[in-house]
């Protein structure tokens, strides 16, 4: 804490000093924040690197103890920041101390995925940018070797990753490695660099691609056989730990499971009503299958990118000044096509701290060139506007009033995903889904999130399927039943369903945060509305809610209710 004397820092200063120290250990975080010095580096994913992050968290909690005892620490701004910092670091340490980082294999969320993704947001506009990227490419082998060392130690300590995510990850690494020299993902990425650095970039990308292939071979030949008999599910104890990490609260998992079923039945009734309007006599998924063929579509990859951009631009024009009050730099968001070889779900990346890199939505095409509108509209209200983009860009915009930590690395997954799902519902409430086609697509997306709560908790805890379920009543959940149920209650293609279930198996407790987070946002809004009565101002509430930074779900409801 260079700007304060020892023991004099308040919670927000402690939090921001933590961010500075974190960036030094984790240059990927630095790049997402827009720190130029991070562009040449990658983190240490080895056991020693993981322990360094844990040591920073422990030291920061000790500093926070001292900070919260100081005069001024009880102000609203300091209290809220300290509350978030303590909750986040405590949850992160619980995961670390259980050695979860030694078994982190996923189709979406692993060190290898983070390494690849960071190249898509690293500046690449000038020769100097590309020189930094060449250094970062040269850092890929050590980063992947550190990750492999952690997985190897996990095997030694009888801490296996799941066999299904492992098999999927091997397939992804195979795609990233390419079919021959110069065809890997990193090779293709580097091919866009300037001619003046061609030799350097080709050598660096070739080394990165070779490291991917080496990791793939080890995962396939050593790791996969070692974990083939391990369970894909995590059990109640591990699940509760991960649910805390992703949701920022100690959940009553049985109550959450029951809530998922109640939402399932509510949404199913609404879907049947909309399906009848589209194809009389048909059920919801028959109607969605009909729309896949006969509904409105966007033809072409570039055409769908442009259409999604126009959808977000139109939403900003309609919402700004009426339901939100947006700064000019928050109004900018870009639609992008996701690089191949990743998971099937769309995603969002936030702006850099100075907004030189805007927020971006990413669409994985999965080889498709024809895109049904019903499956896109609600999703882009979720990923873009008024969903992830408005929340995360607004946090960045008001970071000087919060703390750097609250606006960035302190993000609680269920808070952000809950807001994005709330945003979908808000657009329905405001009349932006005027026809049965778009509204059935929205309800299908909502149903997917309800099914996530059911199958994610159900299969990891091996819970019983209720007697009033139309699907295998009285049986206990398995991953196979979960995939069948999810496929039966989704308009999405089989490869998406398979990718989703693999994601849930490798990120236990994350997928439930969408619906549970939405419930927290709705509860907070309703409490505030009751408190203010006729004087409740939805626009003012939205902006105050989006300007308070991230919080775990318990804290979120309390804070939203006070606004």
From TrEMBL:
Q: Which domain of life is it from?
A: Bacteria
Pfam hit, one: DUF885
Q: Which PANTHER family match?
A: DUF885 DOMAIN-CONTAINING PROTEIN, GLR0591 PROTEIN
Q: What is this protein called?
A: DUF885 domain-containing protein
Q: Which species is the source of this protein?
A: Streptomyces corynorhini
């Amino acid at each position: 804490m260079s700007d304060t004397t020892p023991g004099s820092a308040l919670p927000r200063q402690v939090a921001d000093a933590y961010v500075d120290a974190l960036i030094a250990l984790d240059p990927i975080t630095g790049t997402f924040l827009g720190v130029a010095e991070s562009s040449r580096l990658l983190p240490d994913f080895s056991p020693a690197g993981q322990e360094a992050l844990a040591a920073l968290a422990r030291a920061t909690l000790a500093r926070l103890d001292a900070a919260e005892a100081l005069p001024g620490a009880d102000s609203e701004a300091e209290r809220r920041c300290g509350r978030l910092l303590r909750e986040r670091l405590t949850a992160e340490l619980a995961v670390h101390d259980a050695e979860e980082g030694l078994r982190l294999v996923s189709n979406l969320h692993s060190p290898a995925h983070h390494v690849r993704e960071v190249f898509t947001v690293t500046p690449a506009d000038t020769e100097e940018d590309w020189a930094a990227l060449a250094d970062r490419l040269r850092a890929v082998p050590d980063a992947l070797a550190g990750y492999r060392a952690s997985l190897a130690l996990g095997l030694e300590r009888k801490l296996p990753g799941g066999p299904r995510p492992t098999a999927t990850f091997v397939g992804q690494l195979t795609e990233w490695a390419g079919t021959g020299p110069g065809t890997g993902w990193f090779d293709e990425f580097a091919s866009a660099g300037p001619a003046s650095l061609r030799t350097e970039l080709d050598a660096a990308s070739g080394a990165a691609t070779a490291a991917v292939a080496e990791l793939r071979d080890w995962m396939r030949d050593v790791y996969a056989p070692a974990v083939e008999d391990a369970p894909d599910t995590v059990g109640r104890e591990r699940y509760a730990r991960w649910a805390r990490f992703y949701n920022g609260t100690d959940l009553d998992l049985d109550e959450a499971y029951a809530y998922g079923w109640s939402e399932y039945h509510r949404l199913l009734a609404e879907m049947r009503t909309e399906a009848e309007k589209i194809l009389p006599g048909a059920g919801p998924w028959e109607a969605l299958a009909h729309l896949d063929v006969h509904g409105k579509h966007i033809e072409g990859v570039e055409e769908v990118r442009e259409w999604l951009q126009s959808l977000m631009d139109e939403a900003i024009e309609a919402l700004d000044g009426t339901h939100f009050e947006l700064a000019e730099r928050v109004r900018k968001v870009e639609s992008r096509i996701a690089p191949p070889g990743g998971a099937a779900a769309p995603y969002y990346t936030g702006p850099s701290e100075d907004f030189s890199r805007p927020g971006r939505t990413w669409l994985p095409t999965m080889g498709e060139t024809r895109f049904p509108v019903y499956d896109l509209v609600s999703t882009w209200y979720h990923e873009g506007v008024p969903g992830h983009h408005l929340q995360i860009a607004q946090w960045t915009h008001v970071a000087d009033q919060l703390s750097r930590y609250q606006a960035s690395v302190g993000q609680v997954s269920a808070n952000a995903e809950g807001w994005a799902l709330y945003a979908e519902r808000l657009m329905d409430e405001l009349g932006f889904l005027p026809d049965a086609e778009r509204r059935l697509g929205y309800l299908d997306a909502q149903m997917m999130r309800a099914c996530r709560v059911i199958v994610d908790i159900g299969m990891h805890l091996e819970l019983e399927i209720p007697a009033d379920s139309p699907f295998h009543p009285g049986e206990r959940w398995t991953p196979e039943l979960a995939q069948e149920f999810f496929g039966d209650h989704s308009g999405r293609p089989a490869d998406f369903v398979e990718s989703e279930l693999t994601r849930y198996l490798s990120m236990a407790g994350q997928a439930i945060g969408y619906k549970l987070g939405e419930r927290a946002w709705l509860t907070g809004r309703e409490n505030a509305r009751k408190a203010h009565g006729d004087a409740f101002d939805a626009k003012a509430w939205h902006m105050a809610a989006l300007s308070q930074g991230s919080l775990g779900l318990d804290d979120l409801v309390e804070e939203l209710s006070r606004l």
